[in-house]
């Protein structure tokens, strides 16, 4: 994978790449949006806890496909309030702490999810050769 953050545009606001190129022949994995639900259906109350669980769920999906967070090329994340951005970003950065080359990333504020107690949803695209 090649990451792109051209010097001719503003650098990324956080730890992500402006673009990622996937080579021909790579395997692609696209996840559904993951909520912060634990296997027992419990839900952390705060956005950071929910985001951390989203990433734990994604890690399990990646592992089943023989991939790791290092194979993620794009993160799409959704939070229900600007106040949840910092918690989400802390969980994302912790999840990417061991990843040398960060993926592309988008964070969007939405009006809500299927349940009012859901604060964060995360989906990823991963690629491996």
Report on the architecture of this protein.
This protein is an alpha+beta fold and 129 residues long. It has one domain: RutC-like (60s Ribosomal Protein L30, Chain: A), CATH 3.30.1330. The protein is built from two helices and seven strands, in the order ββββαβαββ. Helix 2 (85-95) links the parallel strand 5 and strand 6 (104-109). Helix 1 (47-64) packs parallel to helix 2 (85-95). The termini are close together. 30% of the residues are buried.
Shape label: globular
- Rg value: 15 Å
Regions with little confidence, pLDDT below 50 for 5+ residues: none
Q: How many domains in all?
A: 1
The proportion of strand residues reads 25-35%
How far apart lie the N and C ends? 9 Å
Number of strands: 7
Count of helical regions? 2
Helix % is: 10-25%
Fourth-tier CATH superfamily name? RutC-like
CATH topology description: 60s Ribosomal Protein L30, Chain: A
> Would you tell me the overall average pLDDT?
96
Class computed from helices, strands and strand pairing: alpha+beta
Protein name: Enamine deaminase RidA
Pfam families: Ribonuc_L-PSP
Which structural traits does this protein have?
129 residues, alpha+beta, 60s Ribosomal Protein L30, Chain: A, five-stranded mixed β-sheet, 2 helices, 7 strands, globular, YjgF/YER057c/UK114, Enamine deaminase RidA, RutC-like_sf
Short synopsis of the structure:
This protein is an alpha+beta fold. The protein has helices spanning 47-64, 85-95; strands at residues 2-4, 19-21, 27-30, 34-35, 72-79, 104-109, 120-128. It starts with a strand and ends with a strand.
């Amino acid at each position: 994978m090649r990451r792109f953050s051209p010097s001719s545009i503003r650098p990324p606001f956080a730890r992500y790449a402006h673009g990622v190129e996937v080579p021909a022949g790579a395997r692609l994995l696209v996840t559904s949006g993951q909520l912060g639900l634990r296997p027992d259906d419990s839900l952390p109350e705060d956005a950071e806890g929910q985001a951390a669980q989203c990433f734990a769920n994604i890690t399990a999906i990646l592992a089943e496909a023989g991939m790791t967070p290092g194979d993620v090329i794009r993160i799409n994340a959704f939070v229900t309030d600007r106040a949840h951005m910092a918690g989400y970003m802390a969980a994302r950065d912790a999840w990417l702490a061991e990843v040398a080359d960060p993926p592309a990333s988008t964070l969007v504020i939405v009006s809500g999810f299927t349940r009012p107690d859901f604060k964060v949803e995360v989906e990823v695209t991963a690629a491996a050769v």
